[in-house]
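RECORD TYPE: protein structure
NAME: Cytochrome C assembly protein
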Amino acid sequence: MNELLLMRLHEAILILYMISIACYFFDFVEKSPRLKRYGYLLLLSVFVLQSISIILFIFIVGRIPIETINEGFYFFTWLIILISLILSKVIRTEFFIFLMNLIGFVFMMIHTFQPLDLSTGTTVSHMMNELLWIHVTLAIVSYVMYLIAALHAVLYLIQMHQLKQKKFNHKFFRISDLESLSRFVQIFSIIGCVMLMISLILGIYWGITFEGKSIWTDSKVLGSLLLLIGYSVYIFLHQKNKLMMHRLMDFNIVLFLLLLINYLIISRFSGFHQLFY
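PREDICTED:
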């Protein structure tokens, strides 16, 4: 009964999420304030319902739903929606909100159509502690920060292309200027780096304590360390203007694609990361 309730709730959330994204898309194409308003209200409804489903999960199962990769998708989507609701009041770029939530919708869909696990404990739940919870949460939050940075990099390239083609239509003026987009890429990349670095420090400390020196040969740990180095190099190059800006935007997008590979694929070969996120 509990499993059926959560499944139906997730399906309803997915439908509302899809309609909300459609409203944002049509608003961007046709410039309709009414559709934009509907899209925002539906997105807010999705956030509220998703928050309720997380609370129900905690009440029914007795744990926070981030212990498996599939549960991590749901938490990742919840963060995307929360941040997009905040940014929609700060950054007047509907296309950015659309792209961000389109990615969130994909992860939500993957989660919804996977078998629901209502077991009170996963393989790692017995050795979970506050340190590990913080490590996992910070890692997922850093992924959202990197996603926001990558989407602004995409918008930068789109805006630059429109400038070269001299396409000064209403879509052009509804995307931020190049300087603002570049600044947002840098800011969110820095925030992501700080969070990922703290997450790695906590995770490595936990790993050494429970797994021993084998932590240093774990594929996910090595991949995350390389990504942190890659983003640090990007921040340095951006700060020192060592590359042309559009090349830096390409670099940022490639780094995020590598992050997705590290999270979705390399985690499968990890000795213990595949167990919880």
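COMMENT: The longest helix spans residues 130-165.
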